[in-house]
Amino acid sequence: MSLLAMGFLLVILQPSAGQFPRACANTQSLLRKECCPPWDGDGSPCGELSNRGSCQNILLSQAPLGPQFPFSGVDDREDWPSVFFNRTCKCGGNFMGFNCGECKFGFSGLNCTERRIRIRRNIFQLTTSEKDKFLAYLNLAKNTLSQDYVIATGTYIQMNNGSNPMFRNINLYDLFVWMHYYASRDTLLGGSNVWRDIDFAHEAPGFLPWHRVFLLMWEREIQKITGDENFTIPYWDWRDAEDCAVCTDEYMGGRHPTNPNLLSPASFFSSWQVICTRSEEYNSQQALCNATSEGPILRNPGNNDKSRTPRLPSSAEVEFCLSLTQYESGSMDKMANYSFRNTLEGFADPRTAISNISQSGLHNALHIYMNGSMSQVQGSANDPIFVLHHAFVDSIFERWLRRHRPMLEVYPAANAPIGHNRENYMVPFIPLYRNGEFFKPSRELGYDYEYLQEPALDSFQAFLTPYLEQARQIWAWLVGAAVVGGIVTAVLTGLMLACRKKRRGTASEVQPLLIESEDYNNVSYQSNF
């Protein structure tokens, strides 16, 4: 597209909307550009009366962006979420949520003071009852309306700048499918024009932190609708796999007996309907996906283009990827060389770390191999294998963080593609999360992976935890006791030294020599106490 055409299009562009807390999907909130819902616990905005948080102006990053997106003010996702809201809840302490009504990841309890680590496990290590419970939870999410969130069915302009709200309900599973679509969709430029080189969740530094938040939020919502606070997403370790081991009716659905592109009717996943898979149709209509059902899940694992993805990833490729010391490099997009992120995402060769977009490695290889709904970026989360796959990708990210122990400054602060700088808020999450906030070990976010645990350390930490918690609660008394003890010790020491000095001054000449010099080295020191 020529620069002249770009300039003309700036006049006719139609921005689009994101996912919203239900409490803010109304005319008043949109016109005031404020999303600070009351917390049910005390009825005050952001739970301010209970010191949980307060309604504050959003501080946006001013760091420069990369050159990949040559527009400004044409997409509602720019400077998220400022097109819709410039005031949201800022939570204090360990509180979190769009109204500060929840605990930060890794905390629980009435006042969010209890630390806890949940363990994500290999799906093949689950008992039959645990596996069946996981599958039942997936189906429950697909058939339960989200209580907290709705999706936008029109652009901000179509909403008349907020005076005509356009939202609809959506089930909990599809909410996350829609969010994944929304973050990766093309920019609508009016007429039949779109800008494809934009993605707020892929092809740049934010790929791994974004999907980490996505899984944590998905996990949290399942915990809420089931009441199972211990629920965690299982992972599928696909290293060196010869085929799709989870593609059976016992797990994520086998192959249809007569149509290899469909799932077996013996799996309830065969009745699931997908959404947000027709990107070209939305682009031609200059519209958003409105979550209308678009047919069954498609999957034909292994019958993909072998020239692009000849097989599933190997252990050796994962190990090479982990050896890369740079998180990000160069242009910080899919052309980056020697970038851990780009190699793990799959745009760089997993044997050389040189960008090669004609091939699909590691993360991308799995998507292509599935040869169906998983293989189209915007609608890939429709297939429930998505969460198993990304949980394992996140575990590789975690291994890299533990091996290289990067400082936060390793994550790019500026010049990354739009939405991917360290201080940018992730699209389309409300509550707001910055990319850099999730560039840290998973245990700080309240979870770990079964195969990454250090048993001895974990058992020692578990032993110490209750005592450390008690010490934390009485630390002020402990400090006071230490100060008093120090003063008493100093006074007693002074008195002892004074008495000793006095005795030496009066009787030093008649005291016998206790130890001859030649025997001195044979005597052990012993404490006087």
Describe this structure in words.
This protein is mainly alpha-helical. The chain has a domain of 330 residues: di-copper center containing domain from catechol oxidase (Orthogonal Bundle), CATH 1.10.1280. 31% of the residues lie in helices and 7% in strands. The protein contains 12 helices and 14 strands. It has a 3-stranded antiparallel beta sheet with strand order 1-10-11. It has a 3-stranded mixed beta sheet with strand order 2-4-3. The protein has a two-stranded antiparallel ribbon with strand order 5-6. β12 and β13 form a beta hairpin. α5 crosses α10. The N terminus and C terminus are likely disordered.
Features:
disordered N terminus, single chain, 14 strands, di-copper center containing domain from catechol oxidase, 529 residues, three-stranded antiparallel beta sheet, three-stranded mixed beta sheet
Brief rundown of the structure:
With 529 residues, the protein is mostly helical. It is built from 12 helices and 14 strands.
The oligomeric state of the chains shown is single chain
Can you write the helix and strand succession as a string? HEHEEEEEEEEHEEHEEHHHHHHEHH
CATH superfamily of the domain at 120-449: Di-copper center containing domain from catechol oxidase
CATH topology name of the domain at 120-449, in short, is di-copper center containing domain from catechol oxidase
- Measure the end-to-end span: 85 Å
How many helices? The count is 12
The major sheet is characterized as:
3 strands, antiparallel
Q: CATH top level of the domain at 120-449?
A: Mainly Alpha
Bulk shape: globular
- Widest β-sheet, arrangement of strands: 1-10-11
| CATH A-level architecture of the domain at 120-449 | Orthogonal Bundle
What portion of residues belong to β-strands? 5-15%
Q: Which structural class do the helices and strands define?
A: mainly alpha
Using DSSP, what is the number of strands? 14
Low-pLDDT runs of 5+ residues are 1-18, 456-460, 465-469, 501-529
Whole-number average pLDDT? Answer: 87
Gyration radius from CA atoms, angstroms: 29 Å
Helix share, percent: 25-40%
